[in-house]
Design a protein that fits this description.
- The chain is of the alpha/beta class.
- The chain has two domains: 2-110 and 312-325, Rossmann fold (3-Layer(aba) Sandwich), CATH 3.40.50; 113-306, Dihydrodipicolinate Reductase, domain 2 (2-Layer Sandwich).
- The chain has helices at residues 2-7, 57-69, 92-95, 112-128, 145-158, 164-169, 206-219, 253-261, 274-277, 308-325, and strands at residues 17-19, 27-30, 33-39, 50-53, 73-76, 106-108, 130-138, 225-229, 239-247, 266-268, 283-291, 297-304.
- The protein has a six-stranded mixed sheet with strand order 8-7-9-12-11-10. Strands 1-3-2 form a three-stranded mixed sheet, with no helix packed on it.
- Helix 4 (112-128) runs parallel beside helix 7.
- It is globular and about 55 Å long.
- The protein binds NADP nicotinamide-adenine-dinucleotide phosphate.
Length: 326
């Protein structure tokens, strides 16, 4: 977020940093100045215009209302507020108009996987009426935060001298216990459970539910059907999605490609990959072709940087859009 605020010359008069008691008292650089991190639990939030919050859902449920009642517009990265009907869930290229009503002083930033797909699916929906999506995801470990990144890095380090055949035959190279972020070894592996299984009998993960619920809210299609399988893959940055979508009317790959060439926040590319998109702002989309198994079907593949557009960049774009509308 700090890097993107600087890159975009965001008009910051004064910046304050907050964390938990774990990092309070440490310093973070802002344009050469060392700024002390304050403990969010005890800080006085008065005087803040815009708060960019990214501390997780549990703490956000407490912190976001405190920040909002002190007068800030809170742009929150966590899942705590996304489905609240009084909280807009915004991707500025897609539904900026939702910022006209911010009843609780809180704006939610979508889930990083859903986010990558929205700028692509919106123009296709406007043209042909999106009915359903079958989605398989390929999600980077950084989507699970710093601990996810550390876990892959540690496992790769531990396996650097490994005979890969041993890993292939012995899936239990690392014992999985309470201290691990992922439910199986992530190095040299693919885990078909990203997030955790939710306790509602559906056997879906939280990520799969967010993909459906948040797509419906952002695209404003309450009855959109979404079947997702969210998969964690051993890469650091960049979430990818393979999508087969069904539309109300026929839409040819050529027409879809033309629409996407003009879509804000989207780049059409022959072969989107996480490595290609890491550090870049737009969603890259390609492999656009007819799908036979659904009516008026299209299949496509897209990749986006989950830490930029999927999190920090979109939060800052929301702040920019909000300032423009004020
Ligand atoms: N990573 C992604 O791709 C992504 C994308 C979209 C949304 N999100 C969401 O964004 C949120 C943060 O994710 P992340 O990946 O950035 O996690 P992270 O790397 O674990 O960072 C969490 C940050 O929150 C701070 N924090 C934790 N508890 C706090 C508390 N009680 N009060 C104040 N600060 C607290 C931590 O500071 P301390 O060091 O002080 O603990 C740390 O700086 C999550 O809700 C996540 O779902 C993440």
């Amino acid at each position: 977020m700090r890097a993107i605020l600087r890159e975009r010359n965001f008009p910051v008069d004064e910046i304050r940093f907050f964390g938990s008691s774990r990092s309070a008292g440490q310093f973070l650089d802002w344009n050469g100045e060392q700024i002390e991190i304050e403990d969010a639990a005890t800080a006085d939030f008065s005087g803040i215009d815009i708060a960019l919050a990214s501390s997780g859902a549990t703490s956000s449920k407490v912190l976001a209302p405190r920040l909002a009642s002190a007068g800030a517009i809170v742009i929150d990265n966590s899942s705590a507020w996304r489905m609240d009907p009084d909280v807009p869930l915004v991707v500025p290229e897609v539904n900026e108009h939702a910022l006209r009503s911010i009843r609780k002083g809180i704006v939610a930033n979508p889930n990083c996987t859903t986010m990558a797909a929205m700028p692509v699916m919106k123009p296709l929906h406007l043209a042909a009426g999106l009915r359903s999506m079958v989605v398989s995801t390929y999600q980077a470990v950084s989507g699970a935060g710093r601990e996810g990144v550390d876990e892959l890095a540690n496992e790769l380090e531990a396996t650097k001298d490994f005979d890969v055949r041993v890993l292939t035959f012995d899936g239990s190279a690392f014992p999985i216990d309470e201290g691990f972020k992922f439910p199986a070894t992530i190095a040299h592996n693919v885990i078909p459970i990203a997030g955790s299984i939710i306790d509602d009998g559906s056997l879906e993960t939280g990520e799969e539910k967010k993909l459906r619920d948040e797509s419906r809210k952002i695209l404003e299609i309450p009855n959109l059907l979404v079947d997702g399988t969210c998969v964690r893959v051993p890469i650091f940055t960049g979430h990818s999605l393979s999508i087969t979508a069904s539309f109300e009317r026929e839409i040819e790959p050529e027409e879809a490609t033309k629409l996407l060439l003009d879509a804000p926040g989207v780049v059409v590319h022959d072969m989107p990959t996480p490595r290609l998109v890491a550090g870049k702002d737009p969603t890259y989309v390609g492999r656009i072709r007819r799908a036979e198994t659904v009516s008026n079907g299209l299949s496509l593949f897209l990749s986006g940087d989950n830490l930029r557009k999927g999190a920090a960049l979109n939060a800052i774009q929301i702040a920019e859009a909000w300032m423009k509308l004020r």
